[in-house]
Amino acid sequence: MAARKGGVSLRERPHNGGRNDGILSRISTTISQSPIVFQGKRTACKAAFVAKKLLRSTGKAAWIAGTTFLILSVPLIIEMDREQQLNELELQQASLLGTSQK
């Protein structure tokens, strides 16, 4: 074999560990290993982490607000409804008995 200038030919040069991958595979590998893609993935992971924490804290706040409403407001609403029914019953009795309301 005669000595050549410029090193090894394309056939003798190993591609990605000796595999004969196509040019698209080599380009996609090069792009996926670029620092810009790495920073994008890292930023996406951080954004997902923050979104998860925000969603969890929002869920906790919703739980607290819901249980507080149930404990404080629902009994008040029930009592106000009872009071209204009692007033209506008294009005019905007064109209049946013929007494006047002041």
UniProtKB/TrEMBL annotation:
Where, subcellularly, is it found?
Mitochondrion outer membrane
Query: Its topology with respect to the membrane?
Result: Single-pass membrane protein
Coiled-coil intervals in this record? none
Q: What is its main location?
A: mitochondrion
Q: Does the keyword Transmembrane helix apply?
A: yes
Gene Ontology cellular-component terms listed: mitochondrial outer membrane
Keywords of the record, alphabetical order, are: Membrane, Mitochondrion, Mitochondrion outer membrane, Protein transport, Receptor, Translocation, Transmembrane, Transmembrane helix, Transport
Q: Any transmembrane segments, and where?
A: 61-78
Q: According to the UniProt record, where is the region Disordered?
A: 1-24
Record carries keyword Mitochondrion: yes
Quote the Pfam families the UniProt record gives.
Answer: Tom22 (PF04281)
Supply one GO BP term. Answer: intracellular protein transport
State the superkingdom: Eukaryota
Per the record, the similarity remark reads: Belongs to the Tom22 family.
Q: What is this protein called?
A: Mitochondrial import receptor subunit TOM9-2 like
Q: Which organism is it from?
A: Actinidia chinensis var. chinensis
